[in-house]
Each structure stands twice: as C-alpha cells, then as structure tokens.
Automatic annotation (TrEMBL):
HAMAP family: Thymidylate_kinase. It comes from Chanos chanos. It is an enzyme of class 2 (transferase). Residues 11-191 form the Thymidylate kinase-like domain. It catalyses: dTMP + ATP = dTDP + ADP. The lineage of its organism: Eukaryota, Metazoa, Chordata, Craniata, Vertebrata. PROSITE patterns: THYMIDYLATE_KINASE. This is Thymidylate kinase. GO terms for biological process: dTDP biosynthetic process; dTTP biosynthetic process; dUDP biosynthetic process. Catalyzes the phosphorylation of thymidine monophosphate (dTMP) to thymidine diphosphate (dTDP), the immediate precursor for the DNA building block dTTP, with ATP as the preferred phosphoryl donor in the presence of Mg(2+). Its EC number is 2.7.4.9. One of its GO terms (molecular function) is ATP binding. Keywords: ATP-binding, Kinase, Nucleotide biosynthesis, Nucleotide-binding, Transferase. Pathway: Pyrimidine metabolism; dTTP biosynthesis. The gene is dtymk.
Length: 212
C-alpha cells in the first residue's frame, strides 16, 4: 500500500478569533506526536496574485469587488497542485482561512449572493475538517483593537459573522464550532483532539471536492 494521505484541516473565524495562534500550536502539537504537518494561510501574500491582494487589503490600491473576490479564489487555486502533492505525501495541512473566508467576506458586501461567491471555489480540495473559532465581539474586545486593513471594522465583522453562520449550516462540509472565548490552552486541546480524529479518518479516503 502507498503512503496514507494527510488531512486538510482549516481554521476559520472572524478577525481576532485566534486562528493564527491556534494554527501554529496545532502544527507544533502534531509534529510533537510524530505526525507530518505544515501550516498554510490564505491569502498567500507571497505570490504575484497575493501581492495584488495584499496591496488592496492595505488600501494601497483599489480593486473592483468582483475582481478582488476572483483574485482571492485564484490565490487558492494556484496552490492546489502543491496542496495535493503534500497531502498525497502524507503531510497534513493546517490552513489559516480558506474558501469560507472568501465567501463570508465578499457576501457581506451589498449585492453579492452566497452562491455567486461560492462558484469560483467549487472543486477546490475539500477540507476534512473545518473548525470555526466562535467569539463574540465583546469577548475579544480585550484582545486589542483592529488594525488598519480593509474590512477591519466591527460593523463589517458582524456582517461577516452572519455569513459564516449561514455557511456552517451546510452539511456537505465537516464543520465543528469551537468556543474560542476560552483560554488558548483549552481551545488548543479541543482543536488537537478533533484534528487527530480527522487525520485518522482521512488516511483511508480520497481527497474530496468542495461544494461539488
Ligand atoms: N479575506 C481572506 C477575504 O476577504 N477573502 C478571502 O478569500 C480570504 C482568504 O482578507 N480580513 C480577508 C479576511 C481578512 C483579510 O486575512 C486578510 P489575514 O488572515 O488577516 O491575513
């Protein structure tokens, strides 16, 4: 038998929910227990498409709303060959944001349906597990203020939160809602347990296609 594939594990949530901290902790914990794991993040600001996105987020340039949505999607698609290669080599990928952020952020703008926003990402490698780090704005107020990037206002983040709540209802995706208002350690323990289970199950399954 060939190598057992790695699992595609995604962390999602509004800004300041603790995704990046938890992704790093999870990769370290998986490695400590002898599993191969790597972190990825979207947007990946290092590519040419990623640089266009980064300049938009930093408000150094303006892009039309549909256009930037498609760039975020293209920024995922350009990593697909590498993602598949790593998964097939048995490396689990821990991903900080994925297509769900793409849909939640664009559909929070006026005039965008969930369906239109999902379409460009249909067929991406399907995550084996998507953990939604749930916080309410009052609970994270003590985590420091928003930065200066686009979308970093409490009004917009509330709209994004509502869109995530709609996406979580989709039973074709393996969503787990995590209470991220707890301590970093408690949240980590739950995420680690869920991820280890997902890795064990994914080993024997083909990589799925998202929203297809
Ligand atoms: N974002 C992220 C989108 O609008 N669409 C997407 O597809 C993705 C992946 O980019 N506010 C938004 C959410 C964030 C911003 O993310 C940058 P980060 O994790 O702060 O670098």
């Amino acid at each position: 038998m060939g190598v057992r594939r790695g699992a595609l594990i995604v962390l999602e949530g509004v800004d300041r929910a603790g995704k990046t901290t938890q992704c790093k902790r999870l990769v370290q914990a998986l490695r400590d227990s002898g599993k191969e794991a790597e972190m990825m993040r979207f947007p990946d600001r290092t590519t040419m498409i990623g640089q266009l996105i980064s300049s938009y987020l930093e408000k150094k340039s303006n892009l039309e709303d549909h256009t930037v949505h498609l760039l975020f999607s293209a920024n995922r698609w350009e990593q697909v060959p590498l993602m598949k290669k790593k998964l097939e080599q048995g490396i689990s990928l821990v991903v900080d944001r994925y297509a769900f952020s793409g849909v939640a952020f664009t559909s929070a703008k006026p005039g965008f349906s969930l369906e239109w926003c999902q379409n460009p990402d249909v067929g991406l490698p399907k995550p084996d597990l998507v953990m939604f780090l749930q916080v309410n704005p009052a609970e994270v107020a003590g985590r420091g203020g928003f930065g200066d990037e686009r979308y970093e206002t409490s009004v917009f983040q509330r709209a994004v939160q509502q869109k995530f709540e709609q996406l979580i209802k989709d039973p074709s995706v393996n969503w787990k809602v995590i209470d991220a208002a707890r301590s970093i350690e408690d949240v980590h323990t739950e995420i680690k347990t869920l991820s280890e289970n997902a890795i064990n199950i994914a080993e024997n399954q083909p990589i799925g296609e998202l929203w297809k």
